[in-house]
Amino acid sequence: MNDPLKKLSWDDLRIVKVIGEAGNLAAAAGRIGINTSTAFRRLGEIEAVLDRPLFERRRSGYVPTPAGEELVALAQRLEVDIVSVTRRITGQDQDEAGEIRIATSDTFATWLLPPVLAGFTALHPGARVEVVVGNGALNLARGESDVALRATDDPPENLVGRRVARIAWAPYRQRRAHDEAGGHMPDDLAWAAYCDELAGLKANRHLETRVPAERIVFRTNTVQGMAATLAAGLGAGWLPCLVGDALPDLARLGPADEALSDGLWLLTHPDLRKSGRVHVFLEYCAAALTKRRPFIEGRGIEGHGGS
Questions:
Q1: What is the residue extent of each domain of the chain?
Q2: pTM to 2 decimal places
Q3: Fewer beta carbons below 10 Å: N end or C end of the chain?
Q4: Could you tell me where the beta strands, DSSP code E, fall in the chain?
């Protein structure tokens, strides 16, 4: 009895997986380095081998059929296994040179990592560092990154690492406006809040429960946008102290609230922690961030470029 799956290669499964994840043929083709017509032809060949459609072609994009969902899930499991085995085979032989890919947020990429990376690359000239910014879920299991620097109180169970600090939050306002008001906050002071994926921040929930909705006149889904808007003079808002304390145009309106802090975690995949280059970077990064703990925890003020 013929098994059609035996006629499929990993490349075939990878095409199905990427189309399922992207939901769009052009985007999927771009991710795997082929043109759209080739992706369309390859998908047609795969469906012909299996004698069933794997995707419904809709205006909104490519939606997996039940058979397509099974094949996408199979390919995702295989990808994790392939990456894991490859790491175990090669990890012990990796020296300190080579590429290190770091996943983090725009806040940490701007305010925490630059002096750390400058120091590390000066100490290890053979290292090449790539920083990928995003607030989404971690995908270290798939080999998309080697290390993650994240704000969380609940790191994923499939990753290993250490908490290097607590990220303090406090309210800030434009310094000039604060000084002109004699250090007082007027009752009708406008406030800025976070939205989208940052709406669930402890500091944001705290603000939403204490400030009337009509006084919240601005929302953003980035810390960078919040800092720039407050510095321009649009009311008050909450920022990580490592951002707010480093900006001379901002004044802190009160002490950091420990209940609103988040853990700062340095994470990697278990298969990578013994890799020479990853281990050396983790140790260096943890030591460098530990030195800056007072700054991160709102207990010390340093310049933007400080180390």
A1: 4-90, 92-167+262-296, 169-260
A2: 0.67
A3: N
A4: 55-58, 61-64, 98-104, 127-133, 147-151, 160-167, 169-174, 191-194, 216-220, 236-240, 250-252, 262-268
Each residue's pLDDT tens digit, 3-44: 666 678 888 888 998 898 888 888 888 878 888 999 999 999
d(CA 134, CA 235): 27
CATH annotation of 4-90: 1.10.10.10
Q: What per-residue string of b and e applies to 203-231 under the rule 16 or more CB within 10 Å gives b?
A: bbebbeeebeeeebebbbebbebbbebbb
Q: Which tokens go with 6?
A: 């035996």
CB contact set of 184 (below 8 Å; sequence gap of 6+): none
Would you say the CATH fold of 169-260 matches that of 4-90?
no
169-260 CATH? 3.40.190.10
Cα separation, 73 vs 69, whole angstroms: 6
